Amino acid sequence: MRFAALCVAMIVSTGAIAAPLSPTQIAAIDAAALKALATTGVPAVSIAVVRDGQIAYTHAYGVQKAGVAARADARYKIASISKQFTAAALLLLAEDGKLSLDDPVSKYLPDLTRAKEVKLRQLLSHTSGYRDFWPQDFSFADMERPTTPGHILDKWARVPLDFDPGTRWQYSNTGYVVAGMIAEKAAGEPLMAYLKRKIFDPLGMKSVRDLDETNGPAFPHGYGRYALGPVRQVTPPADGWLWAAGELSMTAEDLAKWDIARLDRTLIPAEDWTTQETTIKLNDGKDSGYGLGVFVRDGERKAITHGGEAVGFLSTNNVFPAERAAIVVLTNSWSGDAHSRIARDIAKIVLPPVQSDATSQAQAARARSVFEALRAGKLDRSQLTENANYYFTQQAIADYQFSLAPLGNPIAFEPAGKPILRGGFVIQGYTIKYPSRTLELSTFYEPGSNGRIEQFLVTPGE
């Protein structure tokens, strides 16, 4: 079967739920997805794009099994993206006083290695020292037989730790199996039942069902390839292997609903979201770059992110808080990097360009120039959009001059945060400081170095 050709031929989409993406952007996303499938041999991908805190686009491409076109309502294994849900369960149980993240593991599972020294927080942050039971990117012989959390702990959590707790960061699926067992003890019910009651049902994530169904026939088939050989269907592992470390499955749209809850700080207390997204420091003070079930990337733009790998599946989930955006990409092959390519390309299409220092400085200089003109009762209307020209009536300009001119020259004119994209405009705030008071300036620009001004509003600051 020539999957690349089928991927181009078969496209099924649920379409946009909200529609802030332009036809050009949608066409660019479709082209990027199809190109990645064609060049990597990955059979299918399902995506969801969140913009302005709403689901803007969901789509599926390719074939999810021989002769069956990919569907956007199909459930894919999200693998280790599941970890943030397990971590959220422990955070909610802590809110209810049923456990503390600073409890030692020994309070719940006293027979594990050095259980008195390992804290629950270290399980969730991969700083416990428990040996990872699945570091490989292939399935090993034991995975042909069903397992239980207890068996995993017997084999990997009762051996010597790889390092002293808190001294290193090392990814550990084993730690999350331990965390899942503790969550069940504290909740008094199965982990999946707890997550369904506390998270999935309230958010309307209807595609998430029983953990034991992750290998069921309704799923897209998982695929892989040896080197550059033909794409072949792979044999899924027996039941039980990833469990609390990564056995959830869902649609891209349902995962996006969780991302929106993160952006809006709903469902769980806001402080718990913050706790999950706060990176853990090692004993020597070094930053691990990982919170509780999520990576925190503070590069050109902040991202709360995690990937997932299961036998035959790769996925990525990226949330951009400042831009109120998220990108979900789920694929049914664990060979090739289509998931990361597509996520990267979508980000370039839907997120505002990251500004260089020179660009930021130029925009700040422009904003200050317009501010100074308004102080003098002047305004270059060629720099404004139609809407901005409508806003700046002669009365508005007169009021700006009357109220701003007496303040004199500000002592500081500084960007407030990073630019974000909303409604097709680049938004940048500024703080304008005087010796005895502060003003806030909200600017909206059309994208591009010469984009016209859509909004220029001065308000009192703190």
Q: How would you describe this protein?
A:
It is a single chain. The chain has 14 helices and 16 strands. By secondary structure, it is α+β, with helices and mostly antiparallel strands. It folds into 2 domains: 76-350, 3-Layer(aba) Sandwich (Beta-lactamase); 357-460, Roll (Nuclear Transport Factor 2, Chain: A). Strands 1, 2, 3, 4, 9, 10, 11 and 12 form an 8-stranded antiparallel β-sheet that branches. A 4-stranded antiparallel β-sheet has the order 13-14-15-16. A two-stranded antiparallel ribbon has the order 5-8. Strand 3 and strand 4 (68-69) form a beta hairpin. The protein is globular.
Percent of sequence in beta strands: 15-25%
The sequence of SSEs as H and E is HEHEEEEHHHHHEEHEHHEEEEHHHHEEEE
Q: What fold name stands as the CATH topology of the largest domain?
A: Beta-lactamase
Low-confidence segments, given as residue ranges, are: 1-16
Q: Give the tally of structural domains.
A: 2
What distance separates the N and C termini? 64 Å
Mean pLDDT over all positions: 90
CATH class of the largest domain: Alpha Beta
How much helix, percentage-wise, in residues? 25-40%
Report the CATH superfamily of the largest domain.
Answer: DD-peptidase/beta-lactamase superfamily
For the CA atoms, what is the radius of gyration? Answer: 25 Å
